[in-house]
Write a structure and sequence with these properties.
Layout: E1 4-7, E2 10-13, H1 24-28, E3 31-39, E4 42-43, H2 46-59, H3 68-81, E5 87-94, E6 113-120, H4 128-132, E7 134-140, H5 155-166, E8 171-176, E9 179-183, E10 187-192, E11 195-198, H6 209-220, E12 224-227, H7 232-236, E13 240-245, E14 249-256, E15 259-260, H8 268-284
Parallel strand pairs: 7-8, 7-14, 11-12
Antiparallel strand pairs: 1-2, 1-6, 3-4, 3-5, 5-6, 8-9, 10-11, 10-13, 13-14, 14-15
Bound molecules: pyridoxal-5'-phosphate (PLP).
């Protein structure tokens, strides 16, 4: 089935949607993005994504393509037009183009490019992978220094996923100066003696929307949370581990670099947090 997508004010069949070859998103990865989950036909944490999008745009002195209310309307319309019950809405804003290639930004009044499309993912919430748990490898973190900005520079994370796949695993955690930064497309956590440990926010990691919600829910559920750096060796000795992201929610990790965590099955804290997150997020979905 041909999807209906959104490009710069128009809803079009995906085969008819076009962006200029001079667009800076294409030529320079001069673009930011968000991915919002859809469960039960409703948007999960739209507000969180809208706030982070504004922050990414501000950090790059990029113009806002439209208001938050207009963005919400576009999201909802695409979900409806494409009959999405479970899936994702991908949004990308680029600095646009003034019709040529130049390292210098085009003038500030250049119109940004706004593209949104849906991905249909039946079974997103009841994902069998979450019952099995993920096997991860560790790789060096060689990304740029502003990982807090959600840019489309995803080549290294993409290579990381391929390295994991080549090793027969599901994903990779990245290591910088001996400490785990985050997963290729998720935030990383370990659990030891009932305490959840995760890296504090800084420019070194993406400020996950799911991370914020899950840490709040964990605290509300009387779980102990500590935000500090941790090494991959500490992770291998943890009782359990997990990742969070808007598209995979809470994903248990059962193996790191070939070392099984606990009994090698999803841990109780990760499993409980996944349940709480899905439950609470669905109630608040719009
Ligand atoms: N870290 C990285 C590098 C990511 O790419 C993502 C999501 O794409 C996350 C963390 C998780 O962020 P969120 O929970 O907002 O999806």
């Amino acid at each position: 089935m041909t999807r209906t997508v959104y490009v710069n004010g128009e809803y079009l069949p995906e085969t008819e949607a076009k962006v200029s070859i001079f667009d800076r998103g294409f030529l320079m990865a001069d673009a930011v993005y968000e991915v919002t989950s859809v469960l039960d036909g409703k948007l999960i944490d739209f507000e969180g994504h809208a706030v982070r999008l504004k922050r990414s745009l501000d950090e790059l002195q990029m113009a806002e393509p439209c208001s938050k209310d207009e963005l919400l309307e576009i999201h909802r319309k695409l979900v409806e037009l494409n009959s999405i019950t479970e899936g994702l809405v991908y949004l990308q804003v680029t600095r646009g183009s003034d019709g040529d290639r130049d390292f210098v930004f085009p003038s500030a009044d250049t119109k940004p490019t706004l593209v949104l499309f849906t991905q249909n993912k039946p079974g997103l919430a009841d994902n069998p992978a979450a019952k099995k748990g993920a096997k991860i490898i560790s790789i060096e973190d060689i990304r740029w220094g502003r990982r807090d900005i959600k840019t489309v520079q995803l080549l290294y994370p993409s290579m990381g996923k391929m390295m994991a796949k080549a090793a027969g695993c599901d994903d990779a955690w990245m290591i910088e100066d001996g400490y785990v930064t985050e997963g290729t497309s998720n935030n990383a956590y370990i659990v030891k003696n009932g305490k959840i440990v995760t890296r504090p926010l800084s420019n070194d990691i993406l400020h996950g929307i799911t991370r914020k919600a899950v840490l709040r829910m964990a605290t509300e559920a009387q779980m102990e949370v500590e935000e500090r750096l941790f090494t991959i060796d500490e992770a291998k000795e943890a009782d359990e581990a997990f990742t969070t992201s808007a598209s995979a929610f809470v994903m248990p990790v059962v193996e790191i670099d070939g070392v099984a965590l606990g009994d090698g099955t999803p841990g109780p804290i990760a499993t409980r947090l996944r349940e709480i997150y899905l439950d609470e997020s669905l109630k608040a979905a719009i």
